[in-house]
Amino acid sequence: MKAVRLTAWGREPALCEVERPVPHGADVLVRVEAAGLCHSDVHVIDSSPGALPYRPPFTLGHEVAGHVAALGPHAESPAVGERVVLYGPWGCGSCARCAAGRDNYCDRREDLGWHGVGLGRDGGMAEYVLVPAGRHLVPIGDLPADQAAPLSDAGLTSHHAVAGVRHALGDDSTAAVIGVGGLGHLAVQILRATTPSRVLAVDIREEALALARRSGAHAGTLMRADTARVLRTRTGGVGVDAVLDFVGNSATLELAADILRPGGELALVGSGGGQMTVRKPGFLPPGFRLSLPFWGTRPELAEVIALARSGALHVEAERFPLSAAPEAFDRLRRGRVSGRAVLIPG
Ligand code: FEH
Ligand code: ZN
Ligand code: ZN
């Protein structure tokens, strides 16, 4: 079968011909219908040897949807033919976190040598992917695969981040979404679908602000020297109740600190490597709370799929054939993907 693989550190991903996996024990073989691209894939590809606990070669792709093709003899899984999305952050499977479907916070994460499907384990940028347990599969009904796949990472990560700040987003509240790309445009929709808050979007690109408005943002503002003043004005001067930062550089963290209301929440999602000073006494608002959410839980993935099937979420997806993976990665690197790039195996 065809697979987009990281063959060695320091090499660009290659389209390879590999054996189609055979399910044993509790494994489930899934025929891939769509696999999304993520900035984390670029981070993995660009990593130096030893920076990550992964051991190439492995197939990339941690945002995967398809249908069950075959079951191992002990698989407890949706039936062959059922259309599914993969819950991607595979943990150890036996700690209390994994038992609760919170593999994203597995207690043994540092010992595994992987972070999930396509992240040190063979992933879904391929015609087939082997899933070690049926519990990692969520049925998607007739949801198109290029919608479902991005929901398993971009959608789930956004949903998990919103869940962590939702308590601050009651009536007459305001949420700011910084960075409206693959995750941010879904976060805007999730905020509109699950909270009463006013949603303000911030980005450096006009086309991203247009995407934010299409996604339901009440207003969009370009990242400029006066953005904090503009956003504060939009809240009547009190500031925003929550910031979801999908960029995470020093400028966006500074903006977050400047616009947050007393008791405000900052969810730092983007891996921009930015820094902020947390000190008392200091300049952060009293009651400031910071979270660094990672991916999401399996129950939350089922919630995201239910939201999408209800019509509340729409992924702006740009489709590429599997063989065009190098072009898709190049477009992602250059910031030339609106929404989410999705590979479609032949
Ligand atoms: C995966 C692995 C490591 C860091 C971040 C990620 C995210 O893309 C998962 O949502
Ligand atoms: Zn990702
Ligand atoms: Zn675990």
Describe this structure as you would to a colleague.
It is built from 10 helices and 18 strands. The protein has 346 residues and is an alpha/beta fold. Strands 3, 5, 6, 9, 10, 17 and 18 form a 7-stranded mixed beta sheet that branches. A 6-stranded parallel beta sheet has the order 13-12-11-14-15-16, with helices on both faces. Strand 14 (240-245), helix 8 and strand 15 (260-268) form a beta-alpha-beta unit. Helix 4 crosses helix 5 and helix 7 (227-234) packs parallel to helix 8. The longest helix is centred in the middle third of the chain and has 21 residues, at 145-165. The site of one zinc ion has 4 residues, from loops.
SSE topology sketch:
Layout: E1 2-6, E2 14-17, E3 28-36, H1 39-45, E4 58-59, E5 64-71, E6 83-86, H2 96-99, H3 109-112, E7 116-117, E8 120-121, E9 128-131, E10 137-139, H4 145-165, E11 174-178, H5 184-194, E12 198-203, H6 206-214, E13 219-222, H7 227-234, E14 240-245, H8 250-259, E15 260-268, E16 289-291, H9 298-309, E17 317-321, H10 325-333, E18 340-344
Parallel strand pairs: 7-8, 11-12, 11-14, 12-13, 14-15, 15-16, 17-18
Antiparallel strand pairs: 1-2, 1-4, 3-5, 3-9, 3-18, 5-6, 6-10
Bound molecules: (1R)-1-phenylethane-1,2-diol and zinc ion (2 copies).
The site of one zinc ion has 8 residues, from helix 2.
Under the CATH scheme, which class of the largest domain? Alpha Beta
Could you say what the CATH architecture of the largest domain is?
Alpha-Beta Complex
Bound molecules: (1R)-1-phenylethane-1,2-diol, zinc ion
The radius of gyration over CA amounts to: 20 Å
Q: Can you tell me the number of structural domains?
A: 2
Mean model confidence by pLDDT: 97
Report the order of strands and helices.
EEEHEEEHHEEEEHEHEHEHEHEEHEHE
Helix content: 25-40%
Q: What is the name of the CATH topology of the largest domain?
A: Quinone Oxidoreductase, Chain A, domain 1
